[in-house]
Amino acid sequence: MDNQLIGKRVDVLDKGWVELIDLMPHPASNISGDLAIVNAARVSFMGESKGPEKDKKLLFYLLRNHHTSPFEMVEFKFRVRAPLVTWWQWVRHRTWNFNAQSGRYTPFEENDFYVPDVWRKQAASNKQASEGEVDIATNAALTAKLNSLYEQSYKLYEEALQAGVSKEMARLFLPGFSVYYTWVAKIDAHNLMQFMRLRMAGDAQYEIRVYADAIYEAFFKPALPWTAEAFEEYIVKQPSK
Ligand SMILES: Cc1cc2nc3c(=O)[nH]c(=O)nc-3n(C[C@H](O)[C@H](O)[C@H](O)COP(=O)(O)OP(=O)(O)OC[C@H]3O[C@@H](n4cnc5c(N)ncnc54)[C@H](O)[C@@H]3O)c2cc1C
Predict the structure, then answer these.
(1) What does the pLDDT look like over 165-186, one tens digit per residue?
(2) Which of 43, 93, 156, 174 has a 20 to 30 Å separation from 239 between CA atoms?
(3) At what angle do helices 33-42 and 52-64 cross, to 10 degrees?
(4) For residue 36, what is the domain's CATH number?
């Protein structure tokens, strides 16, 4: 396993990121996450590793047959910076444990707002989705308007603070869906696979899909290479029950 995974940070969207801050089993234990899953399954008959070939076969058997509790023995703890439009969807997944930056305590900075690269058009066939992009001129005009809104909102926020208004109320001037927040988020491998199945899918909103993709590519795959292979085979290709 990649020993540099803890502390690794990958950029997402214009100002967001995902950083792995802890992992169980910890890399210093010299027990890979895949092996921790296999060993947990073998406790049923008080056994441990039987060599890579048999171990990998058992892990695939477990996932294929929805024997999921051994996958809960691996845990990931992230620090994530994402706009509220992303968190709004992320918190619906109740199996995550969260702790969030407080907008009542920490003032927002001038640049704490999400500016999309492109403005996607409303999808014709799905009322909840987007497809394609607006033309270049419209894109530039909308982005300029968004930046001007952020500037104006932030000015009003600062004015309210200077007038002695509390941070918890002054933030009413900020454009809610766009504000970046930093959270600590922890989850086990089983529930992370369900999150990734739903949020890496084509019908998930881009602003959360890029976070799910980043978690999968930068952290899940290198931490759990066998599980990632089985995940692609049994969960992504054949949605679980
Ligand atoms: C593309 C997409 C569009 C969506 N659109 C909407 C929308 O328009 N409106 C909206 O409100 N939501 C929407 N959602 C959110 C969706 O309804 C789920 O809330 C979200 O995907 C979390 O799924 P979950 O409950 O399976 O996950 P988790 O909360 O992580 O739960 C995992 C599993 O644990 C079990 N579980 C957890 N808590 C309970 C409980 N209290 N009781 C029983 N079983 C439990 C369930 O089996 C559940 O599947 C959307 C999600 C996606 C992916």
Answers:
(1) 999 999 999 999 999 999 999 9
(2) 43
(3) 80
(4) 3.30.1360.170
